[in-house]
Amino acid sequence: MAYTDDTPEIKKQRAKKMMLWFAMISMTMSFAGLTSAYIVSKSRPDWISGFEIPQAFYISLVLVLVSSLTFFLARKSIQNEKHKQGMGLLISTFILGILFIYFQFQGFSEFINAGYFFTGSESTITTSFIYLVVILHLGHIIGALIALLVVIYNHFKQKYHKGQTLGIELAETFWHFVDFLWIYLFLFFYFVR
């Protein structure tokens, strides 16, 4: 069957998935540009290369991995008509996302306590880059949390059933994307100092 022969509903679903993929590709290009600029800036004489990644960022890494698992299991539960279990896993994912944000700010506190500032006379190009990238990622996490709240609300209203889980699938795809993005950024800052 050709794409042109699909029902309007299937075309609409495909369009929504494509819009999400285009958005994620453009976000990937933005972060690729920022990390490329970070690498180029390493040749500056005022570059700090001996900074330590805050311990809170390690905790964030674990939280992000667990949250991807809970979101995956939530979708599977809802698709298998285990709605109560699915709701519990969706709420768990939301809590893990909030904890992720909390530990990101804890990481900022550790950075500040170590004397690394975002702006001002005591800031450096290195720390400004790190803050900028992490804050930009936090914005995407907040967007993913909003999408997750919409999914929780729709699930509470019993809008998802077997074969009708597009909203969950889109939110889950975006959630995994921002999780993967944090893993990439963490590894990037760990290895490229």
Describe the fold and architecture.
With 193 residues, this protein is an all-alpha fold. The chain has a single domain, classed as Cytochrome c oxidase, subunit III, four-helix bundle (Four Helix Bundle (Hemerythrin (Met), subunit A), Up-down Bundle), CATH 1.20.120.80. The chain has five helices and no strands. α2 (55-79) packs antiparallel against α5, α3 (83-113) packs antiparallel against α4 (125-156) and α4 packs antiparallel against α5 (166-191). The longest helix is centred in the first third of the chain and has 34 residues, at 8-41. The mean pLDDT is 92.
The CATH architecture term is Up-down Bundle
Distance between the termini: 52 Å
Strand tally is 0
| Rg, alpha carbons | 19 Å
* Domain count: 1
List the helices and strands and how they pair.
Blueprint (H helix, E strand, L loop, with lengths): L7 H34 L13 H25 L3 H31 L11 H32 L9 H26 L2
